[in-house]
Amino acid sequence: MEEVTPGIWHWSAPHPKIRIPVHSYYLSSERVLIDPIAPEEGLEWFAEHGPPTDALLTNRHHLRSSELFAERFGVAIRAIRAGMHEFSNGPPVEPFDAGDELPGGVVANGVGAICPDETALYIPTHAALAVADGAVRWEADGPLQFVPDQYMDEPEQTKAGLRDSYRQLLELDFEHLLLAHGDPFIGDGREALAAFAHS
Questions:
Q1: What pLDDT, on a 0 to 100 scale, did the predictor assign at position 59?
Q2: CA gap 179, 120 in Å, rounded
Q3: How many helices (H) and strands (E) does the chain have?
Q4: Domains: count for the chain
Q5: Omega cis (within 30) before 91
C-alpha cells in the first residue's frame, strides 16, 4: 500500500482469473475504493485505516475483490448502468449513469468505445481521473498504450473512439491519472493522457 499523493492510496495484486497484476485505489478520507483487488496486506489494513463504505467500478469487468469488501465492511458496490447485465446473478451492484455524482464527490464520465460500460471517474477533490481498460501502462515508467488488438472487436475504430473520448476528458481539471492496469501518473497525468489522445 502506497500513498501516492495525500489521500490516495495505490496498490497492485495478481488478479485470480487473469493472473496478472491489476491496480486499485483507496480515497482514504472519502472511504471510497476504486476497482478494488484484495492487497497482499489483507483487508485488515482497511480496518486499521478507516473501513471503506463504497466501491466504484470503472467497468463491469473490475469487480475483482469487491465482494470481499462488501462482506467484511458492508461496502456498497457501484457500476455504470450499461454494465448491469454482468451482475444479473449477483452480487448486488447499484447502478449509476454518466454525469452522476457518486460517493466522495466522484463524477462518472462515459468513455465507451472499447465496451459500452467503459467509464472514467473524475475525482475533483484530489485533481485525479481514474480510467478503466482504454489506456494501460505496461512498464512502470512507460507511456500509455492501448490493450492488444485481440481485445478489441474493431481495433482501429475502437482506438479512434477512445482518443475522442479522452480528448473530451482533457477539459477536466486534473493532475493525476489512476490506471486500472499500470502504475498511476502522479502530477503529470493530464499531460500523459493528452499525448495519448493526440497520438
A1: 96
A2: 10
A3: 4, 12
A4: 1
A5: yes
Measured CA to CA, the distance from residue 156 to residue 179 in angstroms comes to 22
> What's the domain range around 30?
2-197
Grid cell at residue 96: 449509476
Quick: pLDDT tens for 148-184.
888 888 999 999 999 999 999 999 999 999 999 999 9
Residues of the chain with pLDDT under 70: none
pTM metric for this prediction: 0.95
CB 107 within 8 A of CB 101: yes
Nearest CA to 95 out of 71, 119, 111 is that of: 119
Q: What is the DSSP string of 24-84?
A: EEEETTTTEEES----TT-THHHHHH----EEE-SSGGG-TTHHHHHHHH-PEEEEEGGGG
